[in-house]
């Protein structure tokens, strides 16, 4: 199931944004973690393709709050998240990459909390490193997850 979110939807639901464009998240699966009559809490696994690195997909697991607030999109999701990025096809890099850049972000509350995924280029090891963490307007979280995608032999990461 693919979804695109507009600005209006961004105010009412979790958002995923790649750079300046709109991201397409594909929910791979979800499992219920806490039953509620009005909608269970769950953990979802979503796939996001890196917009500048064709052939790399990041799988992000996120805790999602259920209940009435979760259904309306106004609940604050827990900070827990995990990431695993993998080469899923031949790698093609569309343009030179910055050493560090936000690849995408996802809203974890109505306005105040955001999950970030940052791509870091490790030029010495010719590897793309992806880091996920969350922040809040007032406070962030030290909870984070990291994964790496080494480039195939003969592929060099072009840098800005």
UniProtKB/TrEMBL annotation:
Key words of the record: Signal
Alphabetized InterPro entries for the sequence: Uncharacterised_CreA
Signal peptide feature range: 1-25
Coiled-coil regions, chain positions: none
Cellular-component GO terms for this entry: cytosol
Protein known as: CreA protein
Domain of life: Bacteria
């Amino acid at each position: 199931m693919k979804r695109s979110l507009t600005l209006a939807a961004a105010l009412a639901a979790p958002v995923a944004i790649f750079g300046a464009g709109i991201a397409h998240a594909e929910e791979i699966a979800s499992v219920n973690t806490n039953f509620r009559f009005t909608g269970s809490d769950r953990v979802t696994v979503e796939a996001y393709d890196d917009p500048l690195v064709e052939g790399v997909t990041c799988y992000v697991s996120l805790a999602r709050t259920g209940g009435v607030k979760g259904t309306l999109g106004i609940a604050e999701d827990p900070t827990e998240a995990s990431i695993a990025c993998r080469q899923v096809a031949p790698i093609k890099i569309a343009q030179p990459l910055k050493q560090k850049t936000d690849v995408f972000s996802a809203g974890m509350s109505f306005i105040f909390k955001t999950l970030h995924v940052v791509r870091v280029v490790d030029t010495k090891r010719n590897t793309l490193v992806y880091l996920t963490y969350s922040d809040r307007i007032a406070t962030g979280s030290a909870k984070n997850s990291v994964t790496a995608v080494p480039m195939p032999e003969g592929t060099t990461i072009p840098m800005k």
